[in-house]
Amino acid sequence: MGKPASDYLPCTAGIGLRAPHYCEVLEKLPKLGWVEVHNENFFGGGESLQPLLKVRGHYPVSLHGVGMGLASTAPLDQAHLSALCRLCDVVQPAAVSEHLCWNSVPDMTINGSMAINDLLPFPYTQEALFHVARRVDQVQEKLGRRLLVENLSSYLSFTHSEMSEGEFLSELSQRTGCAILFDVNNLYVNARNLGVDAKVFIQTLPAKAVAEYHLAGHSIRDGCLVDTHSTQVCAEVWELYEFALQHIGLRPTLIEWDSDIPVLAILKGEAEKAQQRLEEYHASVK
Hints:
Elements: E1 13-16, H1 22-28, E2 35-38, H2 50-56, E3 61-64, H3 78-91, E4 95-99, E5 102-107, E6 112-120, H4 126-143, E7 148-150, H5 165-176, E8 179-183, H6 184-194, H7 198-204, E9 210-215, E10 219-221, E11 224-226, H8 235-247, E12 253-255, H9 264-284
Parallel strand pairs: 1-2, 1-12, 2-3, 3-4, 4-7, 7-8, 8-9, 9-12
Antiparallel strand pairs: 5-6, 10-11
């Protein structure tokens, strides 16, 4: 299957690179550990791919997917998976990741499937674990590399779940060899909205399987935290990140910002905060 994804990403802080910042990044080449892009934006190839290839000449690139639907009951979209394979062949990314969610259902009226533009939760049962593990195996076999699977921000929980999300991810990693992309903001959202014990979640994850951290900001709507990636990382998420460093260790860390995107200097400043914490933890364990 090739070397693990974590062997390629530097253990530094990076940013989610979005279209408004391509030109400035290529012109100024700021000090960044690495960058992540949403892979679906480049499936068409052609001119849209050229800025990414230029960026790849200066920084390690991670491909982050939002459309595969690992927990969907509709068959894996082979066209989607083939497009991802082609993109990996061209970009040679440092890592490839996807969300632990579903986003499509079989639709007999069109002899195919109906896609839903969202990242939807599902009950954490043994049946679901078998289903998702089989699909992760298929994806990893097709890609020829280890996949990173990300924990989900959710706004409901299922009474018939048989395990926690952390336990589900741990078992999924053990069965398939996939890695875990631990999104700290997603966990904080779930702790506030659903009463998830954030520290227990962190302690449940097998440290060796965690290959990357994500950090982001959220919004509050009618008392509910919404994972909008539209603002700076809050103090409570920074505290959880520091707790994760103590229990999991140093890992590549990404700042995500996907709406109300600020100037590059602000985004880079958030990455510098993460980098400072990585360096402080590293110094403390020497």
